[in-house]
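Question: Hello, beginner here. Any chance you could explain the protein record under this note? Any guidance would be welcome.
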Amino acid sequence: MTHYAVFETAIGWAGIAWSGRGLVGAHRPESDPKIVRRSFVRKFPDATEATSPSALTQVVEGIRALLRGEKADLLDTPLDLRRVPDFHAKVYEIARRIPPGQTLTYGEIATQLGDRLLARDVGAALGKNPWPIVVPCHRVTAAGGKLGGFSARGGAQTKLELLAIEGATAAGQPDLFNRL
C-alpha cells in the first residue's frame, strides 16, 4: 500500500509518498497543496493521504530545514528502489552524497560510474528522479559552471532557487548565478 503526506515548507507545500520499504516519491514545493496531492494521485493511483509515520518525521523535518537554508542531511532516508532501473539507482546514490551547498557535474558523476561518456545518461536518470530534494538532483550541474537543465516545474529557475537557498556554486564556479 502506498501513502502520501503533504506538508508546508518555507517556500511552499511539499510532499512525500511511501510504501512499507521506504519513500517511493517526493514532491518539491508548490504554491498550492492541491498540486502536490494531484501529482501523487496521478503517479500512485492507489495511494491514500495519511500522516507520515514517525520513522519518516526526520525526512519531513530535513526537507523543511533544507528549504530554510540549513545544512540538513537526508542521506539515511530509506528509498524504495524497486521502481527504478539499476543505473538510475547508482546515479541517485552518488547524487545523494553531494552535501548541501556543493555541486557535481553530470560528467563527474559519469566518471564516478566508470565512463565520462555516460554524462547524458546521468542527466536522463536525474530527469526521472522520483525523490527531488531527498535525492538532490538540483545539485548536479553542467560542465564549465553552467546550470544545466531541470525537469521540475519551473525548470532551470527552480534549480537556481534551490541552489541559492543552499548557497551553492556550480562545481567550484563562483559565478553560477550569472551564467543563466
Q: What stands out?
A: Residues 171-180 have pLDDT under 50 and may be disordered. The longest strand covers residues 22-30. Residues 85-178 form a domain with the Arc Repressor Mutant, subunit A fold (CATH 1.10.10.10).
